[in-house]
From TrEMBL:
Keywords: Membrane, Transmembrane, Transmembrane helix
InterPro entries attached to this UniProt entry: DUF6112
Keyword field contains Transmembrane: yes
Transmembrane region(s): 39-61, 82-103
Protein name: Integral membrane protein
């Protein structure tokens, strides 16, 4: 009897929705933070382009000179730069997806 009453009480406590949702006016300076994050996205994409260019050059020179270690490092750099650009470019969509999944839990 006590266990079923305790489980019902625990179930009712866990089922409560606190009603907290994200809002745009909770703290001052949100537009500044958004601007900073947008600038960081731009810097990240520029760094990915620079990394891709340098990696392609290393890959080509390493292959041309028969230095397969450098060529392999250049290939890895190309993949890392492309992956970084993919993640940075899709950051908003990735966060929106997981935020939607989390809201459905």
């Amino acid at each position: 009897m006590f266990i079923s009453a305790a489980s019902q009480l625990a179930g009712s406590l866990w089922a409560q929705d606190p009603g907290v949702t994200p809002n745009q006016d909770g703290l001052p300076g949100l537009t500044v933070v958004k601007g900073i994050v947008g600038a960081l996205l731009t810097w990240g994409l520029v760094a990915c382009v620079a990394g891709l260019v340098v990696s392609v050059i290393i890959w080509a020179l390493g292959h041309q000179q028969g230095n397969y270690s450098a060529a392999s490092g250049g290939k890895s750099g190309v993949l890392v730069s492309a992956g970084g650009a993919l993640l940075i470019g899709g950051a908003n969509a990735i966060i929106a997806f997981f935020s939607g999944v989390g809201a459905g839990i």
